[in-house]
Amino acid sequence: MRLDGFGLLVEDMGKMIRFYRDVLGFEIKEEENTSNVYLVKDGTLFLLYGRKDFEKMTNRRYEYIKGLNGHFEMALYVDTFEEVDEAYKKAVENGAISVLEPELEPWGQRTCYIADPEGNLIEIGSWNKPYEEKDLTEG
User: Fold this and answer.
1) What pLDDT sits at residue 139?
2) What residues does 47 pair with on adjacent strands?
3) Which CA distances in Å does 16 have to 24, 52, 101?
């Protein structure tokens, strides 16, 4: 098996599409009025499923967390510490919920946390080097 993508079950499809497309730069593959919307970020498929449509399709009801969702986080990477601050500021100005302002962690990463309009956690972080070099060890 290969990882094809991951998805979120969403309440307000239009609002969530606009956030991921306009604020975080995901590329949308469909119209906003469909029940399943495919977006792509850096070659990874990101699906938004309408909650009611998914429940109807699977003939089940699900529980949904109100407020901040502490079950998972999505991590986004930028190349520089300055870009962490810029991305955080842009996201919060455009509807993201501030969870943790940018800070330099003891392990050397600058990171921050926001939440999308439905409370899903998103980390924006950097090791102050290009993505392609971030996992290379020195020496």
Assistant:
1) 47
2) 7, 38
3) 11, 15, 22
Enumerate residues 6+ apart whose C-beta is below 8 A from 15. Answer: 117, 118
**Of all residues in the chain, what percent carry a pLDDT higher than 70?**
96
Q: State the Rg of the chain over Cα.
A: 16
What's the pTM value of the predicted model, to 2 decimals? 0.90
pLDDT tens readout for residues 86-119: 999 999 999 999 999 999 999 999 999 999 999 9
Comparing 30-39, 83-92, 121-130, the range with the smallest average pLDDT is 30-39
Task: Tell me the domain boundaries of the chain.
Answer: 5-58, 69-133
Which burial class, exposed, middle or buried, applies to 113 when counting CB atoms under 10 A from its CB (0-12, 13-18, 19+)? buried
> Cα(92)–Cα(88) distance, rounded to whole angstroms?
6
Fold of 5-58: 2,3-Dihydroxybiphenyl 1,2-Dioxygenase; domain 1 (3.10.180)
CATH fold match for the domains 5-58 and 69-133: yes
Q: Please name the CATH architecture into which domain 69-133 falls.
A: Roll (3.10)
